[in-house]
Structures are given as C-alpha cells and as structure tokens.
Amino acid sequence: MYIPHFFTLLFIFSLQTMAQELPFSSIAAAPQDLTAGNSISRMIQGLGFRYHWATEGLRAEDLEYRPTKEAQSTLGTLQHIYGLTKTILNAAKNEASKRPAPSPPDNLEALRAATLNDLQQAATLFLNYSEDEIEGLNIIFQREGKQSRFPVWNLINGPIADALYHTGQVVSFRRTSGNPIPKGVNVFLGVKN
Q: Checking DSSP bridges between strand 191-192 and strand 185-186, what pairing results, if any?
C-alpha cells in the first residue's frame, strides 16, 4: 500500500510543479549584445510575461466577460491570441500557417500552456538565429494550396503587436469583471515581487 500512495503523491506533486513551471513568470536577463534575433526574442519574452500574468488566476466569470454583446469574450480573445502565437512560432520555424487555422483548446489550462510554450519556443529560436538566418525567415500563410509570404519583420507590427494589444484587453476585462492581475507584477522589470 505504501508504494501506490507514494506514486499518487508523486503524480500530484508533478501536476502542481508543471502548473507552476509555465514559461514567463519572469523574464531572463537581457543578452549582452543587441541583434535582430535578440530584439525579436525580447519582444516575444515581454509578450509572454504579460500574457502569463494576464491569464494567471482567471475565473469562469472572467472568461465569459465581454464589454458589449458584439465584443468577443475574454475566452475568445485568448483563443485569438493563441492563433497569433501559432503564427509567431511558425515564422520562427519558417513554416506555413495554414488557413483555416486549427481550433484552439477550449480549456483554459491547456490554452494557456500551449500559448506560453509556443511563445517560449519562438523566443528561443529567435535568440539562437544568426543575422543571416533571420533575414531568410518569412511569415507564410497557406490557404487552399496557395502561399503568401511576408518578411519576418512584419511579426513586430503584426502578430506580436496584435497579441500585446489583446493581452492588454484581457487585463482590462478581468479588472472590469472584478479580478485584477496579481499584485506585484512589474512589466518594466519583467518580475513579480
């Protein structure tokens, strides 16, 4: 009986640890040099940090909140951010983003983990690319067998900026629904005190 009890405790501990280990609870120290890859990576890290804390502790009533009948709910906004992060990751891999896009997870924990892990993977890829490799990347959209290509720089004013904008909406929505982000989140320093 002791061994199964041990494995049950280990399983519960592993689940708790996985929940605590989502990326971007803080931002790593800045790189020593300023490069294109480091710059894009840092923007993604900033997005990841903001998203991490904007989505931490959301309740069912927060996910359902919408400022008007016509507006998207918080959950709908999070699903849109997920789609944007898939485009960011696909660009980092120089792979096509297929349209229509696959459906996002409808479970908050899975949606949150997938979004943060995709951002982490993209940030790491950009951090490790050479300048020449960055120049060879594209944002690629594929629909009905046709592809459209855009320079990787469009990530900054496109999906990254859009995801930051919508993450701010989530912060505003949750404040309005009575559940502001946790105290101590410092987006300038990338830490939570």
A: antiparallel
Q: Can you spell out the DSSP letters for 47-79?
A: HHHHHHHHHTT--HHHHH--SSTTSPPHHHHHH
69-100 burial, b for 16+ CB within 10 Å, e for fewer?
eeebebbebbbbbbbbbbbbbbbbeeebbeee
DSSP 32: S
Give the model's pLDDT for residue 101: 87
**List of the chain residues with pLDDT < 50:** 1-19
What is the set of domains in the chain, with CATH numbers? 34-192 (1.20.120.450)
- CA-nearest of 98, 99, 56, 104 to 83 is 104
DSSP code, position 177: T
Structure tokens at 99: 């349209």
